[in-house]
Design brief:
With 176 residues, the protein is α+β, with helices and mostly antiparallel strands. The chain contains 5 helices and 9 strands. It has a 6-stranded mixed beta sheet. The chain has a 3-stranded antiparallel beta sheet with strand order 1-3-2, with no helix packed on it. α2 packs antiparallel against α5. The longest helix is centred in the N-terminal third of the chain and has 17 residues. The chain is globular and about 40 Å long.
Length: 176
C-alpha cells in the first residue's frame, strides 16, 4: 500500500534513489511511496515496450519503460511527477534530458500495468493528471482480468477491451 507525505517539487527532485527498488511519485504535492513492481509486472512492461518499439518509427518516437518519470505539473508547492510503466514521447520534443532525469512534459502515451498495490482512486487521479497535462492516450492494463481501459484526451469515458483485444500480440507474448 502507498504511503503519503507532503513535499515541495524541489524536495521531491532532491530525493536520493533507493537501493531496495522502492519508487516515488509526487501527486499535487503529496509524496507517494510505492513498493517495487513484481517480476510479472516487469515482463508485461517489457513486452508492451517491445511491441511499441517494433510498431513505431524510431526516428520520430522514443519508447521508455520501468517507471520513467514525467513532471506533469511544475507547481513548486503542489507539483506532480508521475512514473509511467511504459511511455511514448515524440523524439523532437524531448531535447536534452535534464539532470533530474524527469521530462518536464507529458508523454504522448502513458501505459500503467495495474498492480495490487495500486488503488482505484490513485489510478483515476493518475489518468486525470496525465490527460490534463497533455497526454493523448492512457492505457490501464489489468493483468488479472485481462482488460485494457483506454482513455483518450478529450473523451468522456474509457473504452474497455476484454482479453486485451486492442493488443493481441501483447497478450499472446505476456501470457506465456
Amino acid at each position: 500500500m502507498a504511503t503519503q507525505t507532503a513535499l515541495t517539487l524541489d524536495q521531491f527532485l532532491a530525493l536520493p534513489e533507493t537501493e531496495d527498488g522502492t519508487h516515488y511519485e509526487l501527486s499535487e504535492g503529496e509524496l507517494i511511496t510505492l513498493p517495487p513492481p513484481g517480476y510479472r509486472h516487469g515482463i508485461i512492461e517489457a513486452n508492451i515496450a517491445a511491441i511499441l518499439r517494433a510498431r513505431l518509427d524510431r526516428k520520430k518516437y522514443i519508447v521508455v519503460c520501468g517507471e520513467a518519470g514525467f513532471i506533469l505539473k511544475a507547481d513548486p508547492h503542489a507539483g506532480t511527477v508521475r512514473g509511467a510503466d511504459v511511455a511514448v514521447s515524440k523524439r523532437e520534443t524531448i531535447g536534452t534530458i535534464p539532470e533530474t532525469g524527469y521530462l518536464a512534459q507529458a508523454p504522448l502515451l502513458a501505459v500503467e500495468v495495474v498492480s495490487p498495490s495500486n488503488t482505484a482512486m490513485d489510478m483515476e487521479r493518475k489518468v486525470s493528471q496525465y490527460l490534463s497535462a497533455g497526454t493523448m492516450e492512457v492505457w490501464l492494463l489489468y493483468p488479472d482480468t485481462q482488460r485494457l481501459h483506454l482513455y483518450l484526451h478529450g473523451a468522456r469515458e474509457a473504452k474497455i477491451y476484454q482479453h486485451f483485444e486492442a493488443l493481441p500480440a501483447f497478450w499472446a507474448a505476456s501470457s506465456k
